[in-house]
Amino acid sequence: MISSALFTGFLLASSASARPTKRGTGEIKCPIILNGFVPADLTPTDFDSYATSPFNPDYIRGSEKFSEILQFPEVESSRFDNESTRAVEVTINDKSIFQKQNGFRRAGLQIQGDTNENGPGTTGVRTLHFSVKQDPERTLNLTHEYLNVWHESADYSANQFNFQSGTIIGKSGSDKNNFKILNRQNTQVWSTPIDATAWQNFAITLDFVKNTLQVYYSKNDEPLKAVTEALQNDNSGGGQYQIGILKKPTGTSDVVNSGYQETGINEGQIYGGIFLEDSADGCISL
Ligand SMILES: *[C@@H]1O[C@H](CO)[C@@H](O)[C@H](O)[C@H]1NC(C)=O
Ligand SMILES: *[C@@H]1O[C@H](CO)[C@@H](O)[C@H](O)[C@H]1NC(C)=O
């Protein structure tokens, strides 16, 4: 006979082992300036408190708390994650309305310590690392334009870069099925197809002294490779890194406030290995 205590123990053990434990082999070689790794032992409500969340518990979200917004899918580790860190999925639904931005459906992560004014992420040379993976249960609707990761200037008037998916409004040449990296002028500098199953790893180096932007990319556990040169880009204006989902509406010229969003949406973007490193003297983790 299996005692109930044993049975409970078996259930606990099997749920603990549900998360594949293979870790990425990426090594972090440079000092971490902002740490967005998600400790594997956090519980959802830990994301509602400054004391326990790696992210700002109050931004960017609507009325739902991060314990309701975030999912923790049982996926393999991304390249820079390991046994003690895990992936996190940002989701949006009909209630994902930030402040009075009724045109958008939006939720996102801001790494604690990334202040809007004179933040540590906007001096010297910085590389933002993030890996993305798609959730087959919560696919994006690529008829819409999405901002997934970007750096927004302190006065909110511009983004130094955008990492986007879907249909870019007003740019008929862009392929909706690609991830696209745009510079401050909203000119696409690189793109790659969204992979339905692989981890896709990105690193974006912003040189705040020379005003350049450079993109690195790889899939799964492959080392990152430069896919652009260091391109001239206006990195001035301070601000913060935004990591999540901002879904624009269709059929409007006033995307912040109006336009069409269907009801019943349930979409997500899985992230792993989020960190900002100091790329002084050309240091970069590949
Ligand atoms: C896992 O990665 C985190 C973030 O880089 C690091 O702080 C930690 O030491 C690593 N743990 C192990 C067991 O490698
Ligand atoms: C995608 O979005 C468009 C525009 O909002 C909508 O008409 C369409 O039904 C959506 N498609 C799916 C599969 O949800």
Helix and strand content put the structural class at: mainly beta
The first-level CATH class name: Mainly Beta
CATH topology title: Jelly Rolls
The secondary-structure element order is HEEHEEEEEEEEEEEEEEE
Low-pLDDT runs of 5+ residues are 1-17
Name the overall outline.
globular
Helical content class: under 10%
Give an account of the 3D structure.
Helix content is 6%, strand content 34%. A hairpin with a 4-residue loop joins β12 and β13 (212-219). The strands form three sheets. Strands 1, 3, 5, 7, 12, 13, 14, 15 and 17 form a nine-stranded antiparallel β-sheet that branches. A six-stranded antiparallel β-sheet has the order 6-16-8-9-10-11, with no helix packed on it. The protein is globular. It has two helices and 17 strands. Bound molecules: 2-acetamido-2-deoxy-beta-D-glucopyranose (2 copies). One 2-acetamido-2-deoxy-beta-D-glucopyranose binds at residues 28, 37, 82-85.
